[in-house]
Amino acid sequence: MNRLRLLVLWLSTGTVSAASAAGFVAIPWFVLMTTGSAANVGMVTAAELVGMLLATALSGPLIDRVGPARTAPLADLAAALCIGAIPLAETTTGLTLWSLMSLAGAFGAFREPGQTARRVAVPELVGNAGVAMERGAGGMDAALRAGHLSGAPLAGGALALFDPPGVLWIATAVMTLSALLVAYAARGVTTSESAGQDTSEGFARRFAAGIGYLRRDRLITWIMVLLLLTNTLDLALTGVLLPTYSARILHDSLALGVLVGALGGAALTGNLLFTWLGARVRRRRMLFTFAFALGPIPPHLAMAAGSGFAVLFCVVVGCGLVAGMINPILAAVSYERIPAELRGRVLSLTTLVAQGGTPLGVLFGGLAVEGLGLRTTLTCTALLYLVALAIPVLGGGWREMDRPRTRPTAEEVVVGSTPHGGQELVDSSSPGCGRQTEDRGW
What we know:
Layout: H1 2-35, H2 38-58, H3 60-66, H4 68-91, H5 97-129, H6 133-161, H7 164-185, H8 203-216, H9 218-250, H10 253-277, H11 283-294, H12 297-304, H13 309-323, H14 326-337, H15 343-356, H16 358-372, H17 374-389, H18 391-394, E1 413-417, E2 423-427, E3 434-435
Helix pairs in contact: 1-2, 1-5, 1-6, 1-7, 2-5, 2-15, 3-4, 3-15, 4-5, 4-7, 5-6, 5-15, 6-10, 6-14, 8-15, 9-10, 9-15, 9-16, 9-17, 10-13, 11-13, 12-13, 12-17, 16-17
Main location: membrane
Family: Belongs to the major facilitator superfamily. Drug:H(+) antiporter-3 (DHA3) (TC 2.A.1.21) family.
Protein name: Multidrug efflux pump Tap
């Protein structure tokens, strides 16, 4: 039964990811078909992204207070209502641009807390199921990738068969299904009240507690900084460099679609491979001498050398395979280290920072191509990846990725202070990593 709940959590994650990706395609198409304005499409899409970022920043304390068992299904249902309200309003009262932007912003704001709440539930469900954390984290990331990969193409195919309002109704039904699935999977998952959290604290103090944890845990902070840099460079690659290379060097738009699809499919395969083998490898060695070094850098160098489609396709597939192992490794470390009562806040903050530079990646990638040239920009981005990989050498705490993942003995525990003035037990072999004495399912 416990393993079934974990599997259902993965299924709900893939389902809601597919519905979100479909909504990200269907809503702009609906706007374009009903208004005929590309500017309106941009404004509605921007509203959705702004809503998502605001919710990412502010939802952590709420998730910790209410618990994932209630937050995830309620967030999914609210997101489903937002999608369904768009075609409903269009056929009844009519939609203004501002009301459409409001619904799109609310959709973005509700769907992100649901995903964060699912991640908060992972450690306890993994512990109850008796599987390795690497497999639990790998399964979550694989479900997320599979949903993103399938949602947009399915939405495109559905738009060829149905009108945009019909596709939005389908997305509403799928989002509702994901709410039912996660309600079953997360039922009984520990809330912050039972984890010993003081629920009388105000929002500001609870939010500050998450920031305070990041200041204490060097490894989680450095992971956040590393993801900020690499995600920014990744978006420059997929959003600017690869499309420009396909247009100017390969002269083939079909090649772009094939390369992007191959990269996503290979990353999903690598993710599944890590889910199977992850518990048998040393994380730090796998991450920095294999996944990062052989993942993002070779495609840049291959394009800088002017490689043809066949060579670039092979490089993209091979590198996507190993790059797909990065997220599960870092997720497993985060799930094990972050205390249960702070998990919602810390995961929300790390997601916000990790994704915060992606708009700049696209912007500076385009400016660099125009100012420096495509091949020079590709060489520079490869060098920037090497600089990012130097962070584990310059920053502290990275050896803790491979620390023994067993509970500390009485001799290994010392008493420390929590950000809100209480007491917690800290593993002295892992500076800055707070651990409570109660079982968290790590």
